[in-house]
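Follow-up to my post from last week.
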Amino acid sequence: MSIEIPEKYRHLFENANFGSLGTVRPDDTVQVSPMWFEYDGETLRFTHTTKRAKYRNLQRNPSMSLAVMDPDKPVHYAEARGRLIEVVPDPTGAFYDQLHRRYGGEGMIPPDAADRVILVMSIEKVNGQ
Amino acid sequence: MSIEIPEKYRHLFENANFGSLGTVRPDDTVQVSPMWFEYDGETLRFTHTTKRAKYRNLQRNPSMSLAVMDPDKPVHYAEARGRLIEVVPDPTGAFYDQLHRRYGGEGMIPPDAADRVILVMSIEKVNGQ
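User reply:
Got it. Predicted complex:
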């Protein structure tokens, strides 16, 4: 279901850059927010909770788009488009802890661990410059 | 129609940061792309052309959302939500030239100046952290 990220954009997703994740709200308006993520070679994975707006948005419309800019040269960027294909419960917050380390922290179990989930996004198209 | 950007977020929009602009495609999927912009104290203004996807998206669904991260500390960010309220023709590319300078360039009239427009976005809500 997912395509491979073209090599010229892959470093944007492999490095610990912040992404800007777009989703569509129930009223058909758009939401964009910065997100940590991990690219596992096939899908993009985010830590989130079942209590927040993006989770509700995705229940109605599974479309997701992640734009990542090169922090050293932001005109170089890629947008990965896809959709929510799986929600994996993460009740110990282990994936949050893993991303916290990926983004330079020391690891941390979040206070809302009980509600934590992993959002798994397919990659159906990648464009950029 | 627009609200003021709260002071704690205003520097994100006043500085020449890249924004991530979300729009909704005609098939109800989401698009996010990096954009130059200018905050004039009331609206957000972007240079674009009438030939490109975002312009077509906005004809059907005027919703726009711009997320801007602090490049030095990306957990500090703001999302401005609003909609397209005006399209101003820019056939000489003057606004592109202005943004090119704002973002550290020497100014430039783009080759597609004839199709250039200024997208004017209202600011209806701002949140962030």
